[in-house]
Amino acid sequence: MPSILCPFCFYEFPEGELLYHCLDCGADIKASDLKRSEIAKKAIVCRTPACHARNVYIKHCPYCNNELPEALFDTHNLSFSLIGSSGSGKTNYITVLLNEQSKRSQKLRIHLNPITHETKETFSSNRESIYTKKLPLSATSPGSERPSIWIIGNGNRNLKYLLNIFDGAGETHNDLLSETARRDSRYIEHSKAVIFVIDPLRFTGLRELANNIDPDKSSRSSAFATEEENSAFIIGNTANLLRRGLKIDTNKKIDMNIAIVISKIDLFLEACFQGKTLFNESPHARNGCFTQQDCDEVDRELTDWLSDNGEDEFINALEQNFYFRKSAFKRKKCYLFGISAFGGAPLADGTLPEVHPHRVMDPLLWLLAQQDFIDSR
Ligand SMILES: Nc1nc2c(ncn2[C@@H]2O[C@H](COP(=O)(O)OP(=O)(O)OP(=O)(O)O)[C@@H](O)[C@H]2O)c(=O)[nH]1
Ligand SMILES: [Mg+2]
Ligand SMILES: [Zn+2]
Ligand SMILES: [Zn+2]
């Protein structure tokens, strides 16, 4: 029997357990209690004796009782998880990413449409905050995270997927046994790929560097007064979360596409990357396909930069846990990306300067190219 994956709680259940919800009397009817013909004809009659409403068609998840969008049933699922510690910039990043892709995808012909009312509303208000009110979005409170569910289509290929982006609150990952962490594990288990956002200001060496370049900009870009995490530890911790979700032994590498995204790169661009590929505008959308050479160069530049700033341990942690190095036997599956959601640090009054995102689409386009969803060259 085919199974259904709930995009809200990430429990997978057999089709027969799906609940049909009657809007007239509020009763739920289990799919296995219905006739096949009723389901096929979409003409379901409510079983409550006093009700008998016709056309009961709203579907609910038997675990979390959320209404399941119709598109869930006729599109393939392409779940990406967006993880990273608290304050790394995930929520601001995803909002800018979704907005930019709608502006810059003419040649790629990717289109994204929100499929739940909630996704649409949340995205609109977040976008208004950043682009119109010029206010950065504040921290996501644990427990309030909701999946952002989109239909992503490729006009060049007649392809359609359900893209489920889950932006969890960073701190929940510190306690792997909490219910939210368990849900995140289930989510990761079903994810095709992971975008892992790293805050450079939580790295001792990079925080020092940012403070030397411009201490004001650095402090306005940081959600925390002090750097307090060991970057290699962050990778190890996340790798364990992934291993648990994917049921991989502790000593084995994680065989999955992982985009390691260094956020807030605006703090370093001018001082460290002039003349480098990372400094240039991203070529992918302009070329209408994913450009592997550009991705390789950026990955190399960031690896060298991290090493030069005392973060060899971080690079080692990537090598230990993921397919970060190219080898004769295995394709490289983990790349470093550098992005800036705003293109500059928040101003002294807490508002944003004119928003000029830098390379925000690169990680998503890389992952889409790996899924053969867009062309790569
Ligand atoms: N300089 C700079 N600062 C940024 C950028 N993006 C985010 N920040 C800063 O980082 C802070 C945290 O960003 P969020 O998007 O809330 O981070 P988050 O990962 O969603 O955090 P949680 O919701 O707590 O998990 C923001 O309030 C900004 O001050 C950027 O592109 N450049
Ligand atoms: Mg957030
Ligand atoms: Zn009814
Ligand atoms: Zn559910």
Which structural class matches the secondary elements?
alpha/beta
Main sheet makeup: 7 strands, mixed
Assign a percent range to the helix content. Answer: 25-40%
**How confident is the prediction overall: mean pLDDT?**
89
Approximate shape: globular
Bound molecules: guanosine-5'-triphosphate, magnesium ion, zinc ion
Oligomerization category of the chains in this entry: single chain
Our estimate of the beta-strand percent is: 15-25%
* Order of adjacent strands in the largest pleated sheet: 7-8-9-6-10-11-12
Give the low-pLDDT segments: none
Distance between the ends: 39 Å
Under CATH at level 1, the class of the largest domain stands as Alpha Beta
CATH fold node name of the largest domain? Rossmann fold
Number of strands: 12
Helix-strand topology string: EEEEHEEHEHEEHEHHHEHHHHEH
Cα-atom radius of gyration: 22 Å
CATH architecture of the largest domain: 3-Layer(aba) Sandwich
**Helical region count?**
12
CATH-level-4 superfamily name of the largest domain:
P-loop containing nucleotide triphosphate hydrolases
Tell me the count of domains: 2
Q: Secondary-structure map with pairings?
A:
Elements: E1 3-5, E2 12-14, E3 19-21, E4 28-30, H1 36-41, E5 58-60, E6 76-83, H2 90-104, E7 110-114, H3 117-132, E8 148-154, E9 159-167, H4 179-190, E10 193-198, H5 204-213, H6 215-220, H7 231-246, E11 257-262, H8 269-273, H9 284-287, H10 292-308, H11 312-321, E12 334-338, H12 362-370
Parallel strand pairs: 6-9, 6-10, 10-11, 11-12
Antiparallel strand pairs: 1-2, 3-4, 3-5, 7-8, 8-9
Helix pairs in contact: 2-3, 4-7, 7-11, 10-11
